[in-house]
Amino acid sequence: MRVIIDTNVFISGIFWEGNFCSQIIEKWKNKEFELVSSMEIIDELVKTLKDFKIQMPDNMIHEWNNIK
């Protein structure tokens, strides 16, 4: 199965554990589906992570940027 995840799902899944979005992220990490994305979505995610009110360390942002 192929799935497109938008920035809102990523942000909710990254910062708040136990919700539906974090379950989606876990399923992707466990290779239960293939992530389909675009450079635009990844760029938006990285920009949002950098500017988000809850600060994430740069090395973690870099890891999310490397899913390209």
Describe the structure using short key phrases:
68 residues, two-stranded parallel ribbon, 2 strands, 6% strand
In short:
With 68 residues, this protein is mostly helical. It is 59% helix and 6% strand.
Structural summary, described in words:
The radius of gyration is 11 Å and the shape is globular. The protein has one domain (2-65). By secondary structure, it is mainly α. Strands 1-2 form a two-stranded parallel ribbon. The chain has helices at 7-15, 20-29, 39-51, 58-65; strands spanning 2-3, 34-35. It has four helices and two strands.
- Biggest sheet layout: 2 strands, parallel
Beta fraction: 5-15%
Class derived from helix and strand content: mainly alpha
Count of individual beta strands: 2
Q: N-to-C SSE series? A: EHHEHH
Number of helices: 4
**So what's the overall shape?**
globular
From the N-terminal CA to the C-terminal CA, the straight-line distance is: 19 Å
